[in-house]
Structures are given as structure tokens and as C-alpha cells.
Specification:
The protein has 13 helices and ten strands. The protein has about 375 residues and is an alpha+beta fold. It has one domain: Amidase signature (AS) enzymes (Alpha-Beta Complex), CATH 3.90.1300.
Length: about 375
């Protein structure tokens, strides 16, 4: 297990946890990861880093090893990771502007759109609450199934207050159920009954972990039949349409009568794990943007503080939420990084990076008060 440099009692997360740990330990200025259900965003959130999950087709992926080669509708996307946002933005722009569409047939001919980035930074400076161009954010405090642990809930409140202090509009985010998206995504990823995963693990010579055995050792579940797989693809499209409609409907909820620019939400409901801390493997917060092929940036907010992040009584959503709530181990988490993610629609990499800059500026302004 790779450990977090900020707290060696917990994991650095994954799947790009090795890269995240190296960056957090200042062993490298920039890094790359791949993200199919959160594998860039999760380790970045756990290691005080910035990480971009782009939409498919903006960063070259040809030649990257994968256990899911040939899967037609859900792709692991490569994205940059960095300790500071400026480096992340610089690397993203360099790769997008490298003209990779001439060498990789999957890349869209879509150069870096500086005007999209500049539009957000310009609108961030508007201090007139009646100006209909001011920025609009939504915040998801929970997904209605799993309640984030106290440090994450505190981070959400910190960001909400910081944005409102700067004059940006913030509304609640109550979208179609994220669990539905996660179920569709993992059924698609598991449509071969884990044959490729078993092959990769056998080739590594390493023993499988107990936490993942159920994902690839279910002998009773065979590969999906073609009609079943097509139905999953259809369910994915129905969900994407439903989510897109909800996003556009937020024009009825904002004072500007325009949809929100970005959505802030947890990366995971928990901070970290180790062999002594049970885990739920709950990934709906990151899996949903992946199913939608949305862009997202994970960003650092604060650190676990044992003096204020004590676990109090909470109104939970059910037995599963209770089981996740009971994994909170404050004594093992004190001082650990706490990160969130901001999500935009498909192929809005410039916009989501610019919105992250606005969020960080708002947080820095709050700290100076």
C-alpha cells in the first residue's frame, strides 16, 4: 500500500496513488494519472493536490495500458496532476495545443480556448449582485445516500461561505440519483465478469486485496450477454439526458435565470483508509461525472482538525450510510488533507480550471480575513 505523505497512517488513494504520493512529497513537479471512476480525483483529494479529469477526446490516450481495452462507451481518460493550479493549467494547455489530433484518431480537433478561460476570470470580478453575468455555483452537500464525514462537510461549508463572501451565487444541487449512475457505470465496467482484472492480477504475481475480491471473484456472475450490454448503454444515455436536463433547469433557480456554471461536491464521503480502517468502496461522487463524461478538477480545501472535526449525531439515510459513518477514525486522520471537486459539462476543461482558480482565490481571500 502507498501511504499519504501528509499522514502515513492512511493510503494515498488510487488508482493514481503512487503519482499523487510522489507529487505530495515534492519528488516531482508535475504528474499524470488516469481516471475512469475517480482515479485522478481521489488521490489528489487525499494528498492536497489538484487533478483534472478531462472529457474523452481532449488528451491523447493511445498506448496507455488498460485492462478494459476496447470498451466502447466508458473510457479511462488521462489527466494532469500538480501541487499548484498554475502548473496544472499550464500542462493542460500545452498538451491540448500540441495538435495531438494529427497523431491520435480519438482526439478532437479542439485547441485550447483561452476566451473560455478568460470569460470566467472576467465574470469573477463582477461585484454587482444584479449583474446577470456573475458566476453561479451549485453545491451538493450529500447525494441522498451517503453522508460525508465531518471534515468533508466542513470543507463544503468553507467553500460555500468563501464564494458567497466574494459575491458569487450558490444554490443547492439536487440532481438525479448518483447511485443510479454509479450502478450503471460499474455494471458496464463489470460486463466481462472481471476476466481482464483477474488476468492482470495473476500476471502481477501479487495477492488480491480483500477489499476488491468481490469485484472480480464472483464465480456466479458470468459475462453480460450482448442484449444486456446494449441495455446498459441505453440506460447510460437516458441518465445522461436526464442529468443534462436537470443542469439546464437550474436556470429557474438562479437569480440570473441562467444555469449554474459549475457544481462543487465531495470526491469521496470519507478521508482515507488503511488496513485497520474498514472501507465501503463508495465511489458514486466520482463515478457520476465519469459516466456523464463531464470535466472535473479536484482541489485542496483544508486539513482534518481533531479539535473541531469530532463526530456528532447525524441524521443518516439508512443502514449503508450508518456503516460508512462508523468508519470515521478521527485519531488516525488528524492533519490529513481534505479536498473537493468542481464539475462542469463535457469538454469544458478551460472553464473548469478557471472556476477552480475562482474558488481558490475565494478561499485565499477568506483566510486573509
Amino acid at each position: 500500500m502507498t501511504f499519504c505523505p501528509y499522514n502515513r497512517q492512511i493510503s494515498a488513494g488510487g488508482a493514481s496513488g503512487g503519482e499523487a504520493a510522489l507529487l505530495a512529497a515534492k519528488g516531482s513537479p508535475l504528474g499524470w494519472g488516469t481516471d475512469i471512476a475517480g482515479s485522478i480525483r481521489i488521490p489528489c483529494a487525499l494528498n492536497n493536490l489538484f487533478g483534472l479529469r478531462p472529457s474523452f477526446g481532449r488528451f491523447p490516450a493511445s498506448g496507455i495500458a488498460s485492462t478494459l481495452t476496447g470498451l466502447p462507451i466508458v473510457n479511462a481518460v488521462p489527466g494532469p496532476m500538480a501541487a499548484d493550479l498554475e502548473s496544472l493549467a499550464f500542462l493542460a494547455k500545452c498538451i491540448i495545443d500540441a495538435g495531438n489530433w494529427d497523431h491520435d484518431h480519438d482526439i478532437y480537433c479542439l485547441p485550447w480556448r483561452q476566451d473560455h478561460y478568460d470569460s470566467i476570470t472576467r465574470r469573477a470580478e463582477i461585484d454587482n449582485p444584479n449583474n446577470n453575468e456573475r458566476l453561479r455555483f451549485a453545491i451538493m452537500k450529500d447525494d441522498g445516500l451517503v453522508t460525508p464525514h465531518p471534515p468533508i462537510a466542513r470543507a463544503l461549508n468553507i467553500v460555500e461561505e468563501a464564494l458567497e463572501d466574494k459575491g458569487h451565487e450558490v444554490i443547492p444541487w439536487l440532481p438525479p440519483p448518483h447511485l443510479s449512475a454509479a450502478n450503471i457505470l460499474f455494471q458496464i465496467l463489470g460486463s466481462t465478469a472481471g476476466q481482464e482484472i483477474r488476468t492482470a492480477i495473476d500476471a502481477s504475481g501479487e495477492p488480491p486485496t480483500d477489499q476488491l475480491k468481490s469485484w472480480y471473484e464472483d464465480d456466479e456472475q458470468g459475462p453480460s450477454l450482448t442484449p444486456e450490454f446494449w441495455n446498459l448503454c441505453h440506460e447510460r444515455e437516458k441518465y445522461r439526458k436526464l442529468y443534462h436536463s436537470y443542469w439546464n433547469s437550474t436556470a429557474n433557480m438562479t437569480t440570473t435565470q441562467r444555469p449554474v456554471d459549475g457544481v462543487i461536491m465531495p470526491v469521496t464521503p470519507t478521508i482515507g483508509l488503511n488496513r485497520a480502517i474498514p472501507t465501503s468502496n463508495y465511489c458514486a461522487y466520482t463515478a457520476t461525472p465519469s459516466l456523464l463524461d463531464y470535466t472535473a478538477v479536484s482541489f485542496p480545501v483544508t486539513f482534518v482538525d481533531s479539535s473541531i472535526d469530532t463526530q456528532t449525531e447525524a441524521t443518516l439515510f439508512g443502514d449503508f450510510d450508518q456503516s460508512v459513518w462508523e468508519t470515521y477514525r478521527l485519531d488516525a486522520l488528524d492533519g490529513s488533507p481534505v479536498g473537493l471537486q468542481v464539475v462542469c459539462k463535457r469538454q469544458e476543461e478551460e472553464k473548469v480550471i478557471a472556476l477552480t482558480k475562482v474558488i481558490m482565490q475565494s478561499l485565499n481571500n477568506r483566510k486573509r480575513k
